[in-house]
Specification:
Layout lengths: L2 E2 L14 E4 L3 H12 L4 E4 L6 H7 L4 E2 L1 H7 L2 E4 L3 H12 L8 E4 L3 H4 L10 E7 L3 H9 L6 E7 L5 H11 L2 H4 L1 E3 L2 H16 L1 H16 L4 H10 L1 H19 L2 H14 L2 H15 L2 H11 L3 H11 L2 H11 L9
Parallel strand pairs: 2-3, 2-5, 3-4, 5-6, 6-7, 8-9
Antiparallel strand pairs: 1-9, 7-8
Helix pairs in contact: 1-6, 3-4, 9-10, 9-14, 10-11
The chain binds NADPH dihydro-nicotinamide-adenine-dinucleotide phosphate and magnesium ion (2 copies).
Length: 331
Protein backbone atom coordinates (compact mmCIF):
# COMPACT_ATOMS: atom_id res chain seq x y z
CA UNK A 1 0.00 0.00 0.00
CA UNK A 2 1.47 3.35 -1.07
CA UNK A 3 1.71 6.05 1.59
CA UNK A 4 2.08 9.73 0.66
CA UNK A 5 4.08 12.16 2.78
CA UNK A 6 4.85 15.91 2.80
CA UNK A 7 7.35 15.60 -0.03
CA UNK A 8 4.68 14.01 -2.29
CA UNK A 9 2.29 16.93 -1.82
CA UNK A 10 2.34 20.44 -3.26
CA UNK A 11 0.40 22.94 -1.17
CA UNK A 12 0.77 25.61 -3.88
CA UNK A 13 -1.99 23.82 -5.84
CA UNK A 14 -4.34 25.65 -3.45
CA UNK A 15 -2.75 29.06 -4.11
CA UNK A 16 -5.30 31.60 -5.29
CA UNK A 17 -8.16 29.26 -4.38
CA UNK A 18 -10.87 29.91 -1.82
CA UNK A 19 -11.64 26.85 0.28
CA UNK A 20 -15.10 26.86 1.89
CA UNK A 21 -15.37 24.56 4.88
CA UNK A 22 -19.09 23.91 5.33
CA UNK A 23 -19.80 23.17 9.00
CA UNK A 24 -17.67 24.03 12.01
CA UNK A 25 -18.16 20.98 14.22
CA UNK A 26 -15.67 18.30 15.18
CA UNK A 27 -13.98 18.01 11.77
CA UNK A 28 -14.95 21.45 10.44
CA UNK A 29 -13.20 23.55 13.07
CA UNK A 30 -10.09 21.33 13.06
CA UNK A 31 -9.60 21.12 9.30
CA UNK A 32 -10.37 24.82 8.81
CA UNK A 33 -7.97 25.96 11.53
CA UNK A 34 -5.15 23.70 10.30
CA UNK A 35 -5.59 24.87 6.71
CA UNK A 36 -5.59 28.51 7.77
CA UNK A 37 -2.40 28.02 9.78
CA UNK A 38 -0.90 26.34 6.68
CA UNK A 39 -1.56 29.54 4.73
CA UNK A 40 -4.66 28.40 2.80
CA UNK A 41 -7.44 30.93 2.17
CA UNK A 42 -10.39 29.43 4.10
CA UNK A 43 -13.93 30.70 4.62
CA UNK A 44 -16.67 29.04 6.66
CA UNK A 45 -20.26 28.21 5.70
CA UNK A 46 -22.80 27.86 8.52
CA UNK A 47 -26.49 28.36 9.19
CA UNK A 48 -26.97 32.01 10.21
CA UNK A 49 -28.34 31.04 13.65
CA UNK A 50 -25.50 28.63 14.44
CA UNK A 51 -23.91 29.15 17.84
CA UNK A 52 -20.59 28.36 16.12
CA UNK A 53 -20.59 31.51 14.00
CA UNK A 54 -18.97 33.52 16.81
CA UNK A 55 -16.46 30.78 17.51
CA UNK A 56 -15.30 30.73 13.89
CA UNK A 57 -15.14 34.52 13.72
CA UNK A 58 -13.09 34.59 16.91
CA UNK A 59 -10.50 32.45 15.12
CA UNK A 60 -10.37 35.03 12.35
CA UNK A 61 -12.58 33.37 9.75
CA UNK A 62 -15.09 35.10 7.51
CA UNK A 63 -18.37 33.26 8.05
CA UNK A 64 -21.15 33.12 5.45
CA UNK A 65 -24.36 31.23 4.87
CA UNK A 66 -23.77 27.86 3.23
CA UNK A 67 -25.04 29.20 -0.11
CA UNK A 68 -22.82 32.31 -0.01
CA UNK A 69 -19.75 30.29 0.97
CA UNK A 70 -20.43 27.81 -1.83
CA UNK A 71 -20.75 30.69 -4.27
CA UNK A 72 -17.46 32.31 -3.25
CA UNK A 73 -15.45 29.07 -3.14
CA UNK A 74 -13.46 27.10 -5.69
CA UNK A 75 -13.07 24.20 -3.26
CA UNK A 76 -15.98 23.10 -1.06
CA UNK A 77 -15.33 20.74 1.83
CA UNK A 78 -18.65 19.43 3.20
CA UNK A 79 -18.30 18.73 6.93
CA UNK A 80 -21.94 18.51 7.93
CA UNK A 81 -23.55 15.50 9.62
CA UNK A 82 -23.88 12.81 6.95
CA UNK A 83 -27.67 12.60 7.26
CA UNK A 84 -28.21 16.29 6.34
CA UNK A 85 -25.62 16.55 3.56
CA UNK A 86 -27.95 15.48 0.73
CA UNK A 87 -30.57 18.13 1.45
CA UNK A 88 -28.09 20.95 2.12
CA UNK A 89 -26.14 20.01 -1.02
CA UNK A 90 -29.24 20.08 -3.25
CA UNK A 91 -30.60 23.34 -1.85
CA UNK A 92 -27.54 25.41 -0.98
CA UNK A 93 -24.47 24.05 -2.75
CA UNK A 94 -25.38 22.47 -6.11
CA UNK A 95 -26.88 25.68 -7.55
CA UNK A 96 -23.54 27.47 -7.08
CA UNK A 97 -21.08 24.88 -8.39
CA UNK A 98 -19.09 26.10 -11.37
CA UNK A 99 -16.93 24.23 -13.82
CA UNK A 100 -13.63 23.11 -12.33
CA UNK A 101 -14.68 23.43 -8.69
CA UNK A 102 -13.71 20.81 -6.15
CA UNK A 103 -16.32 19.01 -4.06
CA UNK A 104 -14.74 17.29 -1.08
CA UNK A 105 -15.90 15.10 1.81
CA UNK A 106 -14.44 13.39 4.87
CA UNK A 107 -16.70 10.35 4.58
CA UNK A 108 -17.96 8.63 1.46
CA UNK A 109 -21.54 7.91 2.59
CA UNK A 110 -23.46 10.43 0.50
CA UNK A 111 -21.58 9.86 -2.74
CA UNK A 112 -21.41 6.09 -2.37
CA UNK A 113 -25.11 5.73 -1.57
CA UNK A 114 -26.17 8.21 -4.24
CA UNK A 115 -27.55 10.95 -1.97
CA UNK A 116 -25.31 13.50 -3.69
CA UNK A 117 -24.90 13.29 -7.45
CA UNK A 118 -22.46 15.99 -8.52
CA UNK A 119 -22.27 17.39 -12.04
CA UNK A 120 -19.63 15.90 -14.35
CA UNK A 121 -17.53 19.09 -14.55
CA UNK A 122 -16.16 19.19 -10.99
CA UNK A 123 -13.56 17.14 -9.12
CA UNK A 124 -15.03 14.96 -6.37
CA UNK A 125 -12.85 13.33 -3.74
CA UNK A 126 -12.56 12.67 -0.06
CA UNK A 127 -9.87 13.64 2.40
CA UNK A 128 -10.58 11.95 5.70
CA UNK A 129 -8.51 12.24 8.86
CA UNK A 130 -8.49 8.93 10.73
CA UNK A 131 -9.24 10.53 14.07
CA UNK A 132 -11.73 12.76 15.85
CA UNK A 133 -11.52 16.44 14.97
CA UNK A 134 -10.02 17.58 18.23
CA UNK A 135 -7.09 15.22 17.77
CA UNK A 136 -6.64 16.51 14.20
CA UNK A 137 -6.18 19.99 15.61
CA UNK A 138 -4.13 19.05 18.67
CA UNK A 139 -1.59 17.00 16.71
CA UNK A 140 -1.22 19.74 14.08
CA UNK A 141 -0.50 22.31 16.79
CA UNK A 142 2.26 20.04 18.08
CA UNK A 143 3.86 20.01 14.63
CA UNK A 144 2.66 16.48 13.94
CA UNK A 145 -0.42 15.15 12.16
CA UNK A 146 -2.83 12.22 12.07
CA UNK A 147 -2.98 9.72 9.19
CA UNK A 148 -5.50 10.59 6.48
CA UNK A 149 -7.28 8.71 3.71
CA UNK A 150 -7.90 10.09 0.26
CA UNK A 151 -10.16 8.67 -2.45
CA UNK A 152 -11.03 10.02 -5.86
CA UNK A 153 -14.60 9.70 -7.12
CA UNK A 154 -14.37 11.99 -10.14
CA UNK A 155 -11.26 13.49 -11.72
CA UNK A 156 -12.48 16.26 -14.02
CA UNK A 157 -9.35 18.42 -13.81
CA UNK A 158 -6.96 15.52 -14.27
CA UNK A 159 -5.27 16.71 -11.06
CA UNK A 160 -7.77 15.54 -8.43
CA UNK A 161 -5.24 13.25 -6.80
CA UNK A 162 -2.65 16.03 -6.38
CA UNK A 163 -5.24 18.54 -5.17
CA UNK A 164 -6.48 16.04 -2.58
CA UNK A 165 -2.89 15.55 -1.37
CA UNK A 166 -2.41 19.32 -1.21
CA UNK A 167 -5.47 19.61 1.03
CA UNK A 168 -4.18 16.76 3.20
CA UNK A 169 -0.88 18.61 3.51
CA UNK A 170 -2.76 21.68 4.72
CA UNK A 171 -4.55 19.73 7.45
CA UNK A 172 -1.32 18.01 8.57
CA UNK A 173 -2.19 14.60 7.09
CA UNK A 174 0.96 14.18 5.00
CA UNK A 175 3.06 14.72 8.13
CA UNK A 176 1.78 11.36 9.37
CA UNK A 177 1.03 9.66 6.05
CA UNK A 178 -1.86 9.55 3.60
CA UNK A 179 -3.26 6.31 2.23
CA UNK A 180 -5.33 6.06 -0.94
CA UNK A 181 -8.59 4.12 -0.89
CA UNK A 182 -11.95 4.20 -2.71
CA UNK A 183 -15.27 5.72 -1.70
CA UNK A 184 -16.76 2.23 -1.51
CA UNK A 185 -14.02 0.84 0.72
CA UNK A 186 -13.91 3.88 3.01
CA UNK A 187 -17.68 4.00 3.43
CA UNK A 188 -18.28 0.30 3.97
CA UNK A 189 -15.36 -0.31 6.33
CA UNK A 190 -16.19 2.82 8.34
CA UNK A 191 -19.81 1.72 8.85
CA UNK A 192 -18.78 -1.86 9.59
CA UNK A 193 -16.16 -0.80 12.12
CA UNK A 194 -18.45 1.48 14.09
CA UNK A 195 -21.37 -0.95 14.05
CA UNK A 196 -19.60 -4.21 14.76
CA UNK A 197 -16.56 -3.35 16.84
CA UNK A 198 -16.05 0.25 17.93
CA UNK A 199 -19.52 1.34 19.00
CA UNK A 200 -22.09 -1.44 18.59
CA UNK A 201 -19.89 -4.36 19.53
CA UNK A 202 -18.15 -2.57 22.38
CA UNK A 203 -21.26 -1.17 24.07
CA UNK A 204 -23.15 -4.47 23.76
CA UNK A 205 -20.19 -6.36 25.23
CA UNK A 206 -19.81 -3.92 28.13
CA UNK A 207 -23.54 -3.94 28.95
CA UNK A 208 -23.84 -7.73 28.75
CA UNK A 209 -20.83 -8.22 31.04
CA UNK A 210 -22.13 -5.65 33.53
CA UNK A 211 -25.64 -7.16 33.56
CA UNK A 212 -24.30 -10.69 34.06
CA UNK A 213 -22.32 -9.68 37.15
CA UNK A 214 -25.12 -7.57 38.64
CA UNK A 215 -27.76 -10.24 38.01
CA UNK A 216 -25.50 -12.71 39.83
CA UNK A 217 -25.55 -10.43 42.89
CA UNK A 218 -22.24 -8.57 42.59
CA UNK A 219 -22.06 -4.87 43.41
CA UNK A 220 -22.85 -2.64 40.40
CA UNK A 221 -19.81 -0.52 41.32
CA UNK A 222 -17.52 -3.54 40.97
CA UNK A 223 -19.22 -4.53 37.73
CA UNK A 224 -18.76 -1.02 36.38
CA UNK A 225 -15.04 -0.95 37.10
CA UNK A 226 -14.40 -4.41 35.65
CA UNK A 227 -16.57 -4.15 32.55
CA UNK A 228 -16.40 -0.48 31.56
CA UNK A 229 -13.76 1.59 33.34
CA UNK A 230 -10.85 -0.81 32.85
CA UNK A 231 -11.61 -1.30 29.18
CA UNK A 232 -9.77 1.92 28.40
CA UNK A 233 -6.57 0.66 29.99
CA UNK A 234 -6.66 -2.48 27.84
CA UNK A 235 -7.60 -0.63 24.66
CA UNK A 236 -4.78 1.89 25.22
CA UNK A 237 -2.28 -0.99 25.35
CA UNK A 238 -3.66 -2.50 22.14
CA UNK A 239 -3.65 0.93 20.48
CA UNK A 240 0.00 1.47 21.35
CA UNK A 241 1.39 -1.99 20.64
CA UNK A 242 -1.25 -4.34 19.27
CA UNK A 243 -2.73 -7.39 20.95
CA UNK A 244 0.70 -8.89 21.79
CA UNK A 245 1.80 -5.80 23.72
CA UNK A 246 -1.45 -5.80 25.67
CA UNK A 247 -0.96 -9.49 26.51
CA UNK A 248 2.61 -8.81 27.57
CA UNK A 249 1.38 -6.20 30.06
CA UNK A 250 -1.48 -8.10 31.68
CA UNK A 251 -0.91 -11.07 34.00
CA UNK A 252 -0.55 -14.56 32.58
CA UNK A 253 -3.82 -15.43 34.29
CA UNK A 254 -5.51 -12.64 32.36
CA UNK A 255 -3.85 -13.71 29.11
CA UNK A 256 -4.90 -17.36 29.59
CA UNK A 257 -8.48 -16.23 30.22
CA UNK A 258 -8.28 -13.97 27.19
CA UNK A 259 -7.16 -16.76 24.86
CA UNK A 260 -9.32 -19.58 26.18
CA UNK A 261 -12.57 -17.65 26.81
CA UNK A 262 -12.57 -14.99 24.08
CA UNK A 263 -13.63 -17.44 21.35
CA UNK A 264 -16.53 -18.67 23.57
CA UNK A 265 -17.88 -15.11 23.71
CA UNK A 266 -17.33 -14.10 20.09
CA UNK A 267 -18.31 -17.37 18.41
CA UNK A 268 -18.71 -18.55 14.82
CA UNK A 269 -22.38 -17.53 15.19
CA UNK A 270 -21.27 -14.01 16.07
CA UNK A 271 -19.07 -13.95 13.00
CA UNK A 272 -21.95 -15.15 10.84
CA UNK A 273 -23.94 -12.21 12.14
CA UNK A 274 -21.03 -9.89 11.34
CA UNK A 275 -21.11 -11.15 7.75
CA UNK A 276 -24.84 -10.48 7.62
CA UNK A 277 -24.31 -6.93 8.96
CA UNK A 278 -21.65 -6.38 6.30
CA UNK A 279 -24.01 -7.62 3.59
CA UNK A 280 -26.67 -5.13 4.75
CA UNK A 281 -24.12 -2.31 4.57
CA UNK A 282 -23.02 -3.40 1.09
CA UNK A 283 -26.52 -3.76 -0.37
CA UNK A 284 -27.67 -0.37 0.97
CA UNK A 285 -30.13 -1.72 3.57
CA UNK A 286 -28.43 0.10 6.44
CA UNK A 287 -28.14 3.37 4.51
CA UNK A 288 -31.80 3.25 3.48
CA UNK A 289 -33.04 2.60 7.01
CA UNK A 290 -30.90 5.35 8.52
CA UNK A 291 -31.97 7.90 5.90
CA UNK A 292 -35.66 6.96 6.36
CA UNK A 293 -35.31 7.12 10.16
CA UNK A 294 -34.10 10.72 9.76
CA UNK A 295 -36.98 11.60 7.44
CA UNK A 296 -39.50 10.64 10.14
CA UNK A 297 -37.66 12.55 12.90
CA UNK A 298 -35.85 9.61 14.46
CA UNK A 299 -38.52 7.84 16.58
CA UNK A 300 -36.48 4.66 16.97
CA UNK A 301 -33.15 6.46 17.41
CA UNK A 302 -34.66 8.51 20.25
CA UNK A 303 -36.35 5.55 21.95
CA UNK A 304 -33.22 3.40 21.88
CA UNK A 305 -31.01 6.24 23.10
CA UNK A 306 -33.40 6.98 25.98
CA UNK A 307 -33.54 3.34 27.06
CA UNK A 308 -29.76 3.17 27.25
CA UNK A 309 -29.46 6.51 29.07
CA UNK A 310 -31.64 4.96 31.78
CA UNK A 311 -29.54 1.77 32.03
CA UNK A 312 -28.15 1.02 35.50
CA UNK A 313 -24.57 1.15 34.18
CA UNK A 314 -25.07 4.84 33.40
CA UNK A 315 -26.50 5.57 36.86
CA UNK A 316 -23.68 3.89 38.73
CA UNK A 317 -21.14 5.33 36.29
CA UNK A 318 -22.22 8.87 37.09
CA UNK A 319 -21.61 8.29 40.79
CA UNK A 320 -18.25 6.63 40.31
CA UNK A 321 -16.93 9.17 37.84
CA UNK A 322 -17.73 11.90 40.36
CA UNK A 323 -15.02 10.25 42.50
CA UNK A 324 -12.62 10.70 39.58
CA UNK A 325 -12.96 14.38 38.68
CA UNK A 326 -9.88 14.12 36.46
CA UNK A 327 -11.96 12.22 33.90
CA UNK A 328 -13.30 14.82 31.53
CA UNK A 329 -16.46 13.77 29.72
CA UNK A 330 -17.53 15.27 26.40
CA UNK A 331 -21.20 16.12 26.88
P1 LIG B 1 -20.49 17.67 13.63
O1 LIG B 1 -21.81 17.12 14.01
O2 LIG B 1 -19.43 17.78 14.68
O3 LIG B 1 -20.65 19.14 13.01
C1 LIG B 1 -21.69 19.44 12.22
C2 LIG B 1 -21.62 20.87 11.71
O4 LIG B 1 -22.64 20.98 10.73
C3 LIG B 1 -21.90 21.90 12.77
O5 LIG B 1 -21.11 23.05 12.55
C4 LIG B 1 -23.38 22.24 12.54
O6 LIG B 1 -23.62 23.57 12.81
C5 LIG B 1 -23.50 22.07 11.04
N1 LIG B 1 -24.85 21.74 10.58
C6 LIG B 1 -25.66 20.74 10.99
N2 LIG B 1 -26.81 20.74 10.29
C7 LIG B 1 -26.71 21.77 9.41
C8 LIG B 1 -27.56 22.29 8.40
N3 LIG B 1 -28.76 21.74 8.15
N4 LIG B 1 -27.14 23.38 7.69
C9 LIG B 1 -25.94 23.93 7.93
N5 LIG B 1 -25.08 23.48 8.87
C10 LIG B 1 -25.48 22.42 9.60
O7 LIG B 1 -19.96 16.81 12.38
P2 LIG B 1 -18.60 15.97 12.27
O8 LIG B 1 -17.46 16.91 12.21
O9 LIG B 1 -18.60 14.86 13.26
O10 LIG B 1 -18.80 15.27 10.84
C11 LIG B 1 -18.58 15.97 9.62
C12 LIG B 1 -18.15 14.97 8.56
O11 LIG B 1 -16.87 14.42 8.92
C13 LIG B 1 -19.06 13.78 8.38
O12 LIG B 1 -19.07 13.42 7.03
C14 LIG B 1 -18.38 12.68 9.20
O13 LIG B 1 -18.69 11.37 8.76
C15 LIG B 1 -16.94 13.01 8.92
N6 LIG B 1 -15.97 12.51 9.90
C16 LIG B 1 -16.13 12.81 11.21
C17 LIG B 1 -15.19 12.42 12.14
C18 LIG B 1 -15.27 12.92 13.55
O14 LIG B 1 -14.25 12.97 14.18
N7 LIG B 1 -16.41 13.29 14.09
C19 LIG B 1 -14.04 11.58 11.77
C20 LIG B 1 -13.88 11.42 10.33
C21 LIG B 1 -14.85 11.84 9.46
P3 LIG B 1 -24.67 24.14 13.89
O15 LIG B 1 -23.82 24.90 14.82
O16 LIG B 1 -25.56 25.01 13.07
O17 LIG B 1 -25.39 22.99 14.52
MG1 LIG C 1 -18.25 6.81 10.84
MG1 LIG D 1 -8.83 -7.59 36.75
Amino acid sequence: MKVFYDSDADLSLLDGKTVAVIGYGSQGHAQAQNLKDSGVNVIIGLRPNSPRVKEAQAFGFEVYSVAEAAQKADFIQILLPDEVQGKVYREEIAPYLKEGDVLCFSHGFNIHFGQIQPPKNVDVFLVAPKSPGHMVRRMYEKGAGVPHLIAIHQDYSGRAHDIALAYAKGTGGTRAGVIETTFREETETDLFGEQVVLCGGATALVKAGFETLVEAGYAPEMAYFECLHELKLIVDLMYEGGISAMRYSVSDTAQWGDMIIGPRIITEDTKDEMRQVLAEIQDGTFAKEWLLENQVNRPQFNALAKADEDHEIEEVGKKLRAMMPWLKATK
